[in-house]
Design goal:
- By secondary structure, the chain is of the alpha/beta class.
- The protein folds into two domains: about 160 residues, 3-Layer(aba) Sandwich (Rossmann fold), CATH 3.40.50; about 80 residues, no CATH class.
- The chain is about 35% helix and about 25% strand.
- Helix 7 links the parallel strand 7 and strand 8.
- Helix 3 runs parallel beside helix 6 and helix 5 crosses helix 6.
- It is globular and about 50 Å long.
- The two termini are about 35 Å apart.
- The structure holds adenosine-5'-diphosphate and magnesium ion.
- The site of magnesium ion has 3 residues, from helix 1.
Length: about 260
């Protein structure tokens, strides 16, 4: 398929005797919002961690824009266009929101975030184009009004949006987000949904892990369902909602 941005083929990941991902295959198209759902412990975060390069796969292949990346270190994958956010916010509390997003602009330089503090302090390395890019992302992610606040003082919902803005700073083609709505209230979830749609409008693909089923069903073009590390279904939200195996393994319990 010409517009396939990411192809995952026969991916497996074992932790000792635990088979966290088993023979998992799926594609993601440019401009697609793909949901990854399943019960706790079904391998969702492990999938994101293996795709992003935090963990080596036990076997299988990952092809990003036609290039095999499964042996590439994480910063190189980011530079090739694959970015992710973490399930729990990982932020540098002393940085301002704007500085934090700026860090994300330089995935290779900031392999070690502590090594990057000095270059960032000498902010001259960040030119006008970078500043305009960061301003654009601050607006996209509803962070412009708090751009100069220290990250440690913003709300947890704002930190969640900040993680997305920081991941977007590297200009990815595909963004992986792990449980972005956890702990958000309804109007924040709506804002998150609008943001994800805005990201897609820019031509990016988004892979979203989320337990909030109303959000997943409203947002996703397609959904992949995991159970015990295996894909048990994939399809449109309507197909997934009506799939007996999915209801049995997951939706029954979630509903
Ligand atoms: N670093 C790790 N070491 C050992 N086992 C792990 C590790 N990470 C995840 N697991 C195990 O892999 C399985 C899948 O976990 P995870 O991917 O976090 O599930 P999910 O995100 O769907 O809740 C679980 O059995 C979990 O205990
Ligand atoms: Mg998880």
């Amino acid at each position: 398929m010409a517009d396939t941005i990411l192809r995952v083929d026969a991916l497996s990941k074992n932790f000792g005797g635990v088979r966290a991902i088993r023979d998992l295959s799926f594609d993601v198209a440019a401009g697609e919002i793909l949901g990854l759902i399943g019960p706790n412990g079904s391998g969702k975060s492990t999938t994101v961690n293996v795709l992003a390069g935090l963990l080596p796969p036990t076997s299988g292949s990952i092809v990003l824009g036609g290039q095999s990346i499964e042996r590439m270190p994480e910063p190189q994958r980011v530079a090739k266009g694959l970015a992710r956010t973490f399930q729990t916010a990982r932020v540098f509390p002393e940085f301002t929101v704007r500085q934090h997003v700026t860090i994300g602009c330089h995935p290779i330089r900031t392999v070690n975030p502590f090594a990057s503090i000095l270059p960032l302090g000498a902010a001259s390395v960040d030119d006008d184009e970078t500043a305009a890019h960061v301003d654009d992302l601050l607006r996209l992610c509803s962070l412009a009004s708090i751009a100069d606040r220290p990250v440690g003082g913003i709300s947890s919902a704002q930190q969640r949006f900040l993680m997305i803005a920081t991941a977007l700073a590297a200009r990815p083609r595909i963004l992986l987000v792990d449980e972005p709505a956890a702990g958000l209230v309804e109007h924040e979830r709506q804002e998150l949904a609008e943001l994800v749609r805005g990201i897609r409008k820019r031509g990016l693909a988004v892979v979203i892990i989320e337990h909030h089923m109303a959000l997943i069903m409203a947002l996703c073009d397609r959904i992949v369902v995991l159970n015990f590390g295996s894909k048990i279904a994939q399809g449109t939200p309507a197909e997934i909602r009506a799939n007996p195996a999915v209801i049995d393994a997951y939706l029954g319990e979630a509903a």
